[in-house]
Amino acid sequence: MNKLLLSISLFASVVGVVQAQTKITGTAKNSATGEEVYNLTVRLDGMSNDAVLTDRIGYFQFVDVPDGTYKLQIFGVGFDPYEQTISVAGQKEIELGEVLLTYNPNNVDVGLITLNDDELSSDESSTSSSAGLLQSSRDVFARVAAFELGSYWFKPRGYDNKYNDVHFNGVRMNKIDNGRATFNNWGGLNDVTRRPDELTYALEPSSYAFGDIGGVTNFDTRPSTMRKGVSLSYSATNRSYRNRIMATYNTGLMNNGWAVMFSGSRRWAEEGLVEGTFHDSWGYFLGVEKRINKNHTLNFTTFGAPNRRSTGSANTQEMVDMKGIYYNSFWGWQDGEKRNERVKETYEPVYQLSHHWNINDKSKLLTTVSYQTGREAGSRLDWYNAPNPTPNYYRNLPSWYLYNNDQEGYELQRENWLNGSASQLNWNRLYQSNLNVNKHSVYYLTNDVNEDKTASFYTNFKTELTDKIDIVVAATYQNVKSELFREVEDLLGGNYVLNYDDFNKYYFDENNKDYVAREGDRHEYNYEINRNYADLYFQSKIKGSFLDLTVGMRASYTDFYRDGKFLNGLYRENSFGKSKTYDFLNFGVKSNFLFKLDGRNFISLNGQYSTEAPTADEVFPNARLHDITVEEGIVNAKILSTDLSYVYRGPRVKARATGFYTKIEDEIEKGFGYIDGGEGQYFVAEVMTGVDKQYLGGEVAIEAQITPTIKVTGAAALGQYTYTNNPNYYLFSDDFMVDGGEAYKNYGTAYLKDYKLQTGPQSGYSLGIEYRDPKFWWVGVSGNYLTNNYLDVAPYRRTTNFITNTQSTVTEESLREVLKQQRVSDEFMLNLNIGKTFRFGQYYLGTSLTVNNVLDNENYITGGFEQLRLGNYDNAINQHQQTLFGPRMFYGAGRTFFFNVYLRF
Questions:
Q1: Fewer Cβ in 10 A, N or C end of the chain?
Q2: DSSP code of 176?
Q3: Residues 108-144 pLDDT 10s
Q4: Which H or E element spans position 317?
Q5: Residue 168: how many CB atoms within 10 A of its CB?
Q6: Can you say whether the dihedral through the CA atoms of 573, 575, 581, 586 is positive or negative?
Q7: pLDDT tens, 360-373?
Q8: Which spans in 843-893 are helix H?
Q9: Chain centroid to CA 583: how far?
Q10: How far apart are CA 333 and CA 401, in angstroms?
Q11: Angle CA(620)–CA(621)–CA(624) in degrees, nearest 5?
């Protein structure tokens, strides 16, 4: 019997040894204080088991871990995410010991708005800040720029949003017409976009793309990379929407290798902060992942954000003085309800299939195919042989009567503005005008529509050649077919719209002169833009004990053409059919030198030189009517950018000081408007070629953990962003053709050198203090000062034509005074945030409240532009015309709040 028992014991021991698997343990601690941290989520990427939580002494463990290579991930409220690669090869136990985490009170994880919601409702996406792009950055300055200064339209380094590349699973989402990402396409999907897979700031190297001077953001949409469980949240605010609900469910990676995640949201307001605006946005995301084995993973993703919202108007100071900063000229009463003529609708769903191949421990291949379709549409009033009914039309303003020396008319119209009878649209009058005609509509609503069909292919190969050398090779191909047209949205009681321009007397489509447009029909213009784009990107990083060197190179090819569907009566030779195909070859090189002085002190030097093809909008300035362009100005833009930083990363203090310089040459700029010049009054498309710009400045930021619970953050940005040359200036107008001329005229030089770019505040300062209690509540306050903000200048006024045929005496001193660029006032803003999180077993409840502009400062002008109407010197010095055609400005909001509550389990 003893021999039998001994044999059984030995057999069991052998079996136990054969089947033994590894145990992994560790203790999470605050690197600044050495204290244990509990309630953090710990997971092993590559295992299908549930994540674990650190206990009261920061301890965590995984048992029965099979052999393999895993990525240990630790994340939670108040700390930066942590990652560590672990190799398991038959060990009985792996003791990680103390895992030191970086304390970060900014990492509150409470459902922050992905992009400033007032920006989402803006007509001009070029003026948007980069708040949404920078929200997850660990860089001190980038965080302040996003959360504090970004709330007031501050843009880091003054860059247009077209210089920020946004990618989903490697596929670039920026639009072909203007180069900017349409954030509305994933609006409300904060649980998906909260933590990008990669977020680089400015010239930092990216492992997904060459990138532009504003940085690269890439989202990895695999459910296994995102938080497992259920998340429910409700938000209340007084911004562009009033309410928001979000719900997310993620199975995590299950034992069968599948993972499924769904997220949905809705944001809505019957009326937003600006008068007469509404908001109704939905968002959905579905991710289905199948881990075939440890080497291969397939991931299907689809997301979209159907949204419908109305917008506000840019106003002159005269309008603001009468109606306040929230005045909006686009709405009027109809049947007891406010109706807005400017309604934007966007729905462009995305479908992607990605394959992740872990070739071996050192090499990975990502391949994504993507298809995006849908439409963007924006409505506006139009009319046929009738007066302009909009309240902000200059003949409907009180100052028009002063210009005509009619004091009685001025006082009456001003009273009508103050009581609202003249300051809002009269919808009943528009309907009555159509009924009186009883045939075609003289007033009607139209939609300017852009329907894109975008097919993309992306592949990315990463490998470690040695322990010291990493390689990235990525390739992209994209084909885009864009249909752009105007359609009739609402006939306003009429029967149809005529196929005829009543002003310049021509048919919109001479191929079908008898055509009439009814609701849903295309009208006035109809064309396509077809574009192909391909690029190849290579990057190598060489790591040393003192210096890390990263070098990247890119080559790209772009071609596109216009295909007109209407034969325009004025442009018979250049409106119908395919245009010439424009093609461009481009290249870029960039480098990063990271000098590691010691474990805490670093010096970083970045440099980039690249060329970029012009967009279709820039090549075809008046594409709605024809394909005529300024051939001599269609060249690649050249970009030279560099920055030098000193970085300190201590246990209690983090700091960065940076100087940067960017030069952009041979850009193309365009705009639309009416010009009242020496030759007459024209509606024009203005085009400047050979535009050179300079961005020069510095950034300083410091974050100091004064005590374990108190942190102080300060940041300063000083910038000077200017035109550095005098570009060529052209005007496109139908009136030139009617007069027997050409489609455009060359007006020579626009004298813009040393004028400031309209980028929002060129300098900003922020100082904040935050207290975070160990019991998971916090309160913070920050002061923000915005300065050096200039209105956009009207280039036509800076041509010699401005003083042609003048009846006044022009001196150099008087001309300088008239053409002086307007600087808006510097303003101070106070922000407050407070929050608390609770734990009930496996349930987490969190609340937060953010109040911006606590002092309710309503004097802040975020941006604006000079009107083109003052096209000659005589008009510009007329006091009444200065009021009548004063700059159009965008005012910031007064006091706003955002309250959020969430439940997670």
A1: N
A2: T
A3: 333 222 334 333 334 333 333 333 333 334 678 888 8
A4: helix 317-323
A5: 28
A6: positive
A7: 989 999 999 999 99
A8: 873-876, 879-884
A9: 27
A10: 25
A11: 80
